[in-house]
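name: query_chain
kind: protein
chains: 1
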Amino acid sequence: MTALPHALRPWAESLSKFPLDAALHLGPLVARLSAALGPLRAPSEREGGEPQGYDGLSRRGAFDRLLVSEWLWALEAPDELVRRAAFGELSYLKPAFREPRRAHRTVALLDAGPDQLGAPRLAHLALLIVMARRAQAAGAPFTWGVLQADPKGGAFTDVTPATVGAWLGARDTAPPSAERLVAWREALGLDARTMDVWLVGAPRLSRMTGAESFSRIEVSEVLAPEVRQLAVDVRAVSRAPRSVVLDLPPPGDSVRLLRDPFRARVAAPVKTTQSTRVSRFAFSADGRRLLLFYSDGSVGAMALPNSPRATVARPQRVRPQRGETFLGAGWRRQGGLLVLAKKAGDYVFRGQLQHRIIYHPRAVFPWGLRDTQSHPPVPEAGQRLGRLTTYLNALNRECVLLVGLDDNLYCFEEDPATRRVVSALVARDVMTAAHVRGVNMVVTRDGQVGPGSGVRLGIVSPNEVSQVPLEDSRIGTVWFGASHHPGHPDAGLIAVNNDPGVWGLHHRKAVEVVTLPPGFRAVGVGAFPGPEGLAGLLALEPDQRSFWSMGAHHQSKLVVAAADVVHAEASHAVPVLAWLTTEGELVLYHLEHNMVLCRIQTGGGV
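structure:
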């Protein structure tokens, strides 16, 4: 989990199993308890075993191990030798002995009785993470269990969602008993002399028969007005007690950690104050804004929140003027929301274009086609608008590309003096276009039919559009995705729909074939957390609510929508999946952090 602070990296392996916000709440508890507990020291070698050479010097020993340099006193100053021997100043070789070493085993038995219900169990959860890492660092096995449980049911040896879930469900109304401790001692062969055994619970554990020979961690709530803290006393057998005070997470987060710590935090719904519904949405060409299309024909652009706690900003919104019809919308990092409209037969832009014209003697039109007689169709009311993306030509003039209204790509240029907008059809058989890795990319079909047909990836530059071949797509769908790992050399993570239900996934410099189960509908492509860097198609189950990650070697359910999904889409710039339901709820879901970023009640979706 790369989002963890540097101070929590030693426990990243365990904390990465939790959602990010839960890991950040547990992290401070883990760090403080680890400092109080200290490292696990392996048993040292003791004298009395098989000799194993020498190990340093000593002031005591037999004369046959006296250093050769000390014998010089016998030759040069015998009286000084006698004096040094009397005062213990002579140096001897210290022998080393090899004794069979027992593996140091760590055992933790947790009290799940009434004294430890509620907040103290947060300290128990953090202690499991600390002890697992502590034993791993010393190369020792780790075993843990619940004191009230039957040892015949077996103990746990790792900290996973399954074992933690079993522990959460092991609450008991009875306090721990000496009989249970004896049963655990016999089942695990507990020996405080050769094992690192800890009893975790209330201070009353010290009064239980048989507990005096084991180390204890006593957890209790701090009883003070308006204070949310735990007092933890670490009482090891071999050293003086240590105490630490833990600040608890906020009440809502504490409850979630105790009920289901591995469930992603659900963002509170946000109700919009707009009077019109959101009928559809789409990610911008650069994938960093969410374009909202309202039922009254207006268009909005919303920034993507980076966490469930982030404030959802009000979308920037543009409404059509009298006689205007919007054709497409887009977002620019420098320039903001841009809308292309048609009014009285002319094209107009709602938004300022960049016109810093420079002289370029070799400026050429980069497109091989320039049909000024063909124009994009005007969408009917309720139809989806096209998507706009821009690039700077050789004259440093901002040109606008429109895709999505039909199978063609259109280029629009504005005269800086007259503000007149001219259009031209520049590519046919266009499947998609996006702004990827800082450049515009246009995916087209070569128009041929048969085995020799294929798909081309056009990379737009000021003077040319270079073509890179891709494998054939009979369905005509290509998606770009967000991933930190290498994929296609030019486009990164990309998925090409070869045949019905069959996709070619460009990931880690290879092409993986992914086949969707019958009835599943792909809505995008993305990467998922973990060092292995898995990538897969984002698919919607036939129930129209469940989203899955479908890869060549994995299939896993991601999240379930609260109602039937009308439209879903994934960003190719950030690992975010968005969907709109029939209830009018717009949801943004972070793929890597496995959490809902926000829920917006738009009133649309039907």
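note: Residues 20-37 form the longest helix (18 residues).
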